[in-house]
Design goal:
heterodimer; A: alpha/beta; nine-stranded mixed β-sheet; two-stranded antiparallel sheet; 11 helices; 35% helix; globular; B: alpha/beta; Rossmann fold; two-stranded antiparallel ribbon; metal-binding (chain B); 4Fe-4S (chain B); iron (chain B)
Chain lengths: 321, 267
Amino acid sequence: MADVPSDAPEHCPGTSSDQAGKSSACQGCPNQNICASGAAKAPDPAIEEIRQKLTTVKHKILVLSGKGGVGKSTFSAHLSHALASDDSKEVALLDVDICGPSIPKIMGIEGEQVHQSGSGWSPVYVEDNLAVMSIGFLLSSPDDAVIWRGPKKNGMIKQFLRDVDWGEVDYLIVDTPPGTSDEHLSIVQYLSGAGIDGAVIITTPQEVSLQDVRKEIRFCQKVKIPIIGVIENMSGFVCPKCKNTSQIFPPTTGGAQRMCEELNLPLLGSVPLDPRIGRSCDEGKSFLTEVPDSPAAVAYQNIVQKIRDYCSSHTTSDHPF
Amino acid sequence: MDSSEKSNLHQVKHVVLVLSGKGGVGKSTITTELALALKHAGKKVGILDVDLCGPSIPRMLSVGKPEVHQCDAGWVPVYADPQQQLAIMSIGFLLEDSDEAVIWRGPKKTALIGQFVSDVAWGELDVLLVDTPPGTSDEHLAVLENLRKHRVDGAVLVTTPQAVSTGDVRREITFCKKTAVKILGIVENMSGFVCPHCSECSNIFSKGGGEELAKLTGSVFLGSVPLDPLLTASLEEGQDFLQAFPDSSTYTAISQIANTLLSSLDA
């Protein structure tokens, strides 16, 4: 796949292509001999290091969506809270949205710092059994912009997987940015040795969102990540005054349900719009404990149970590359 | 190479970026509605959609998937109206299968954006709006590097009211400062939902975050656009919301934002 270094000559064929080191564009490139020898085609040694590091992590789940702002981070955070409500489980939440990390705020740990120890970076703990890592902890102020091109983002993701001292973990939840680009390819590539249980795909009901989400599903199929299921977020809003439901983001093409039928994917559930969800996120609290009996919290719990069931019926395939 | 860029953008009077650190806040929606509002004001408008992994503009303007033609000056943009007042270029036009994922790392995206900026024969335009993906990364740097040779008037930042969103937009403001892009103003989208049954207004994604952010950062606040199911439905169908619902409060909000923007460009 695309593996053209950022400082490569124009028309670089990519370090793992058959043409590496041999095409006309390679003439004069300082790495021509390395590429021509085939050394660059070998898998990144970090993949094996990450596999060894993550042998203590039982289940690895990606939260994906082609579309932005559909609730990936909200869901990742609440999935982590729900899984960690069982004291016997250790949960880790990794935020690989390098340019727009929302997890520290949603988890109520904005401004925390990451500490270095002998065994690597220590994640920030929200509860005794809930660890979080995000680039947000490495920034000096909330205004800090991470203006990085792909290769630097990839390096950061590699470090998050290889250099963070996660310890014994039952579930590692990975929250991703929107799209199908560097961050996504990197997380899949670096976890290829350790194995990914599957991906949860988030969408909103309208076609403008579904059209991007179909691309993300295609991405999962291409890189061979099993899809645990699809969640429809922001589906319907119940007016707190008159109790009538409005479709703010109308499912003009049948919403997530129709898409799942067409693509033969499980629909894990639908979560209604509830202003209290957004407020809980802004305040860094868990909506599930703030308003546990609301329809949205019940929907969340049902979805989380399906993910638990999926993981327990499915053991990460240890496929050495 | 420089001369060809000049020939393709030299008749473009103003270039405005539509940015947000956060995804799904309505960058493409605001881009589309601003373009339509400017068109109704008699301007010639272009939209360049550089969201390569999730292009939404073709659907929102219901242009389908026409073939992009070549002419001597480069790619001919796709026109959304027979009068050719609204020109569009998007990667959506170049994909064979609309479900196909564009799984590209940065350098490839940078190369395509370079082409998009230099090789589209826009002709004469009053305003070129550039719709961007969320974040502060490859696409943003690429589009700036390439446009800068011509001109960039500034950026409109879009946010939703809640703190999780304004937090990301603060980072985008830092991006603008570091890259010396003028902030033309902040738009707050999805602010308040008026129940069609009882007219009660619910602030689903909180309220006032955009205005607060504008104050905090010393930027112009262009206005708020409410959550309006009629607006989302229009965008789904690719209908011209401004033409269909001229009496709605959303219409008033959008036209005011467009007018403020236009006068700041002409100033």
